[in-house]
Amino acid sequence: MSCRRGNIAVLPAIWSVLVVSGCGWSGSSSTGLGSLLRVAGAQAMGGSISDPPDQIPATVAPSTNSNIIFPGVSNKALAGVVGPNANAAAIGVPGDDGFWLVPALAPDTVNTDSYDFNTQISFSPALGHSSLLQHNAADGSTTLTLAFRAVDDRGQFGEARTSDLKVQLNDFTGKSLVVSLIWDSPVDLDLHVLVPTSAGYTEVWSKEPAATPAIVATATTPASAADGVLDFDSNAACTIDNRDQEDVVWTGTPPSGHYIVRVEAFSLCGLDSAGWHALAYVPASADAGADTTLGEASGILTEASTRGAHGAGAGITAFEFDYP
Fold first, then answer.
1. Which domain-ending residue is among 139, 167, 195?
2. Secondary structure, 3-state, the chain
3. Which of 4, 25, 190, 268 is deepest in the core (most CB within 10 A)?
4. Predicted TM-score (pTM) of this structure
């Protein structure tokens, strides 16, 4: 089998076979399902991106509009240039159980013998609990290293170039109760939690973000210290922030009783559908080493789900649970 660039350009389906096994490093393909990282339009490979030896002088120059990510962030734009004489970029997290090969076949307009790639990257919701995160005690920041390597049409890899992404975490360790909604597309979904009271229910959502109306966030009493508070209105009015997650969090003792969790599709922002997952749990603490799940559900919302009134009581019931 030939390893000429022309074969790759004409028969892109053969590209991944040529790169990983035709002439250079011999790796194993992978589904990528267990990886922290997903890369659109790329070939998933087993093993760490650090495994292949350095064989060529080609490098990667990546570019993105922001180095900030969230657990579960999806479709974050990533572009770059590989060269000289490379036709793919390997992208991965060192130490992860897989990495990705992205074709770079468009000649770069500035650099001779270099080629451009454009893709989108997504990170697993499990990122927040990964041992691959680096925690900086000096400033409290958390980062994740992303590595890039140029690959030529003989399957040979260049030296790795790394970039540290700043990870914004919701660390709920030791909180008394958390209800989370996570979704997989750049749409505006809203989490509604009906909290039991002596008079019935109070509803926590983006327009009523506190279960206890008397609790108002101030400079001395932040919202995060209050009980039953929505932490974020993600993708509000289709201003996409790539967070795709909302949480209602209790620090003190939550009211005992029956809770109802609802999911509202405020807008799908031009898309046809969006998948979601909702979860209620007691986070791990010093006394309990694992989260305790109280209820969860998943589903898909379509454009029809956005019709009708929006506000208190809107959305579909995802699940119900009792606390304690």
1. 167
2. CCCCHHHHHHCHHHHHHHHHHHCCCCCCECCCCCCCEEECCCEEEECCCCCCCEEECCEEEEECCCCEECCCCCCEEEEEEEECCCCEEEEECCCCCEEEEEECCEECCCCCCCEEEEEEEEECHHHHHCCCCEECCCCCCEEEEEEEEEECCCCCEECCEEEEEEECCCCCCCCCEEEEEEECCCCEEEEEEEEEECCEEEEEECCECECCCCCCCCCCCCHHHCCCEECCCCCHHHCCCCCCEEEEEECCCCCCEEEEEEEEEEECCCCCEEEEEEEEEECCCCCCCCCEEEEEEEEEEEHHHHCCCCCCCCCEEEEEEEEC
3. 190
4. 0.56
